[in-house]
Design a protein that fits this description.
It is built from eleven helices and nine strands. It is of the alpha+beta class.
């Protein structure tokens, strides 16, 4: 039953996120006077027609449940209706941009609304980012160091262990020594300790540490070699803080939610580019494996929701995943790749100076680019689906 309800929940969340995205396109098109001919859930072929409204828009369900679309009148600039007043092709650059970017905007708005509720009602971090080094920090997926600063984890200082044959070992450091101070200054995290060692000016006395060993404090003088002492530096006695949640008054929750939406979007872009880098030009095989593990499609999302249902998580976890999924969909669609919203926006921006002067050949090239891009996206979706299935059965 967990599998059934997990898959059902995944479909419901994915459906809501996609419909909200397409609703953005739909409302923007209606706002600028473009006729919407079809509002489709899923990718054709068409399974059934749900109905038709007074303005002629047909609402449909399609067989491939991996997305959705709105079909606008005159999207094809070479079509017979492209010059009509209510055709997309006949609209100004500003109107076209509004329609194209409305979908991703609605994805970010949905995430913001969910985040506002969560930060007001109370929400714990979803996970800790321990695999990817990013510049952007978030509250719901913080780095380990940031999680310690926020109080998600409780620690009892910094633990030191020498590398065999290193200066630290030669000058007397032992496994699980606890750091008290460096050059008379208390250091709160491993990164700060490493930076203090690296920036230390060499002198005959070396660098002065005070450590705790078996409960007794003692001084330790170590002469670094090339800005390093050769020691493993970690937080000591790490444990999750029980019952930790973010909770703010409503007004503050709105502000925090807005910042989290921006931060999660930047974080998503950083992860996308880092995953692509690791897949294409990894430093080693482990990097490529980590990147491949981070790639997933609808099947992986379904597997995640099955796990969440099995773990009997609260509604706040489900909503957090839904918000992050909405941001991921919005960020992915913003990429300047043909057939995606970002690719379409890039093309109309590139060709904006030629408005009214575009030849049939230019329009054919533009249509071909988007058609090829769509085919590539379908191919990528198939590859990702195969990858997801392989991970499940392996």
């Amino acid at each position: 039953m967990d599998v059934f309800f997990g898959i059902l929940l995944a479909f419901a969340v994915f459906f809501a996120v996609v419909v909200f995205h397409e609703l953005g396109h739909f409302l923007a098109a209606r706002r600028v006077g473009v006729k919407v001919e079809e509002f489709g859930i899923g990718i054709p072929p068409k399974a059934s027609v749900l109905g038709k409204d007074s303005k002629g828009c047909e609402y449909t369900l399609n067989y491939l449940p991996i997305g959705g679309f709105v079909r606008l009148k005159g999207e094809d600039e070479l079509g017979p209706t492209s010059a009509d007043k209510d055709a997309f092709a006949s609209k100004s650059y500003a109107s076209k941009s509004l329609v194209i970017l409305a979908g991703v905007t609605f994805n970010f708005i949905l995430a913001f609304i969910i985040f506002t509720f969560l930060f007001w009602n109370g929400v714990a971090p979803l996970a800790v980012n321990s695999k990817f080094d990013t510049r952007t920090e978030t509250l719901l997926v913080p780095s380990f160091e940031r999680a310690v600063e926020l109080g998600v984890f409780e620690v009892s200082g910094i633990a030191l262990s020498p590398v065999k044959g290193s200066p630290a070992e030669r000058f007397g450091m032992k496994d699980d020594d606890r750091l008290i101070s460096v050059e008379g200054v208390s250091v709160s995290n491993p990164a700060a300790f490493v930076e203090t060692i690296r920036s230390h000016t060499a002198d005959a006395d070396g660098i002065q540490l005070v450590i705790s060993r078996s409960g007794a404090e003692m001084p330790l003088s170590i002469m670094p070699a090339d800005g390093k002492i050769g020691a493993y530096v970690t937080y000591a006695d790490v444990k999750a803080r029980e019952g930790f949640v973010y909770r703010y008054p409503f007004g503050q929750a709105v502000v925090v939610a807005a910042k989290e939406t921006v931060d999660q979007t930047a974080f998503t872009f950083e992860l996308l580019f880092e995953i692509v880098r690791r897949l294409v030009v990894p430093k080693d095989a482990a990097e490529r494996q980590d990147a491949a593990a981070g790639v997933g499609g609808p099947i992986a999302i379904g597997g995640l929701f099955v796990q969440l249902v099995s773990a009997k998580v609260g509604i706040s976890v489900i909503l957090t995943v839904a918000a992050l999924l909405s941001i991921n969909l919005g960020a992915f669609n913003l990429l300047p790749f043909p057939a995606l919203d970002g690719g379409r926006f890039f093309m109309i921006t590139l060709l904006a100076p030629l408005r009214g002067m575009k030849s049939e050949r230019v329009r054919n090239i533009e249509n071909t680019i988007h058609s090829v891009g769509f085919s590539v996206l379908i191919l990528i979706a198939v590859i990702v689906a195969f990858h997801d299935v392989w991970k499940l059965i392996r």
